[in-house]
Amino acid sequence: MTWLRERVRFDRNELSGAFGDLGTEFPLVAGMILVAGLDAASVLTVYGVMQITTGVVYGMPMPVQPLKAMAVIVITQKLSGSVLYGGGLAIGVVMLLLSVTGLIDVLARAVPKTVVRGIQFGLGLQLASLALKDYVPAEGIPGFALAGVAFVVTIVLLGNRRVPPAPIVVALGIVYAFAFKLDGGQLAGAVGFTLPKFHTVTWDAVLTGAVLLALPQIPLSLGNSILATRQVAEDLFPEKHLTVRRISFTYALMNLVSPWFGGIPTCHGSGGIAGHYAFGGRTGGSVAIEGMLYIVLGLFFSAGFRTAIALFPQPVLGIILLFEAVALMRLIRDTLTSTRDFTIVLLTALAAFGLPYGYVVALILGTALAYLWKGSDEEVKK
Asked: How far is CA 168 from CA 116, 200, 270, in A?
């Protein structure tokens, strides 16, 4: 039990950290449930179990996140749940092969750190843009006021270990929801015990999901879910000595297991670690607490999920998301002393942020530029 207490701590800071990634993941989770017609109890419960598992296994804030490219494609193209589950199994197989063969280590050595930093910065720009353009303005003038108060609270309390900001910000959102959007009768109607359901995945769904979902997801996963996650873990928790093989292995296992229980495809993410850390998480307790919240939501509120999600106003999600973005973008500070490195970071970030298939282009363009620039420097030295 001592081993477990060292890896998973429960205190007010871990509770605060538990909300550090909510702005990124919750809208995608909710969107897939509502658009693809997924069973909410299964999705939320399995998602929570995965959070708790990774918290215990890693002993640090190693959150579980929806696969972003897959989620966006499913939501915008209105694909079925069967294709989503097939895509999850397909990418699980790919990541397992990369892990057990050691090819993921080859890829990690081939991609320079400056490119990883650029991908992190580009993701930070995307998250900040999403927060400021979509989430913060979502409730109109009252929402702007709520976001302003949440922003001030976070600025004042960020880094405070005695009074961490996230629980206060979340409480503000809940009070706002009851004041302007919900009443007791609506909430009572949303309560009901619901168990997850088993799901069967067909070969046709795996093949379709591999083409439509897994292929577009792989470059983003290599850049952010594997390489950038390992880099952030090294920055914030160097004593853990995490390897890309271990991260890709747990990534694979999650997606090989989840679809059979109705769970969505998931990954790890650099932004999630940064978000949990920024709001106070230092052990696996922060993601374990988050996982417990999802399990409660899945088991007791999934029957009225559309009502339950209204408890969390989008401006509050936007402020949480904004600070997660800032935490990610700050990581490039170790490249600021080199004009060459900083230029590669910026070009990689702009490609990831602004171009179609940006993470694919950023990974290839940034790596090529880094090697070409290094080669030209060596020629000058000769």
From this structure: 33, 42, 24
Dist. CA 18–CA 91, nearest whole Å? 27
Name the pLDDT band for 188 (thresholds 50, 70, 90): low
Beta bridge pairs of residue 66: 266
Write down the pLDDT at residue 193. Answer: 82
The tokens describing 120, both together, are 């992190």
Angular region, 59: left φ>0, alpha ψ -120 to 50, beta rest: left
Pick 99 or 161 by higher pLDDT.
99
For the stretch 5-58, pLDDT in tens is 778 999 999 998 898 887 678 777 887 887 788 999 999 999 999 999 999 999
Residues 6+ away with beta carbon under 8 Å from 48: 290, 291, 292, 293, 294, 295, 296, 297, 298
Angstrom CA distances, 339 to 58, 119, 188, 362, stand at 36, 18, 59, 19
Element (H, E) at 65: strand 65-66
Domain ranges of the chain: 2-334
- Reported as half-sphere exposure (CB side, CA atoms, 13 A), residue 305 has a value of 26
> Of 245, 295, 233, which Cα lies nearest the Cα of 270?
233
**H/E segment holding residue 16:** helix 12-17
- Note whether 340 and 112 are within 8 A (CB): no
DSSP string of 194-235? Answer: ---------HHHHHHHIIIIIHHHHHHIIIIIIIIHHHHHHH
pTM of the model: 0.79
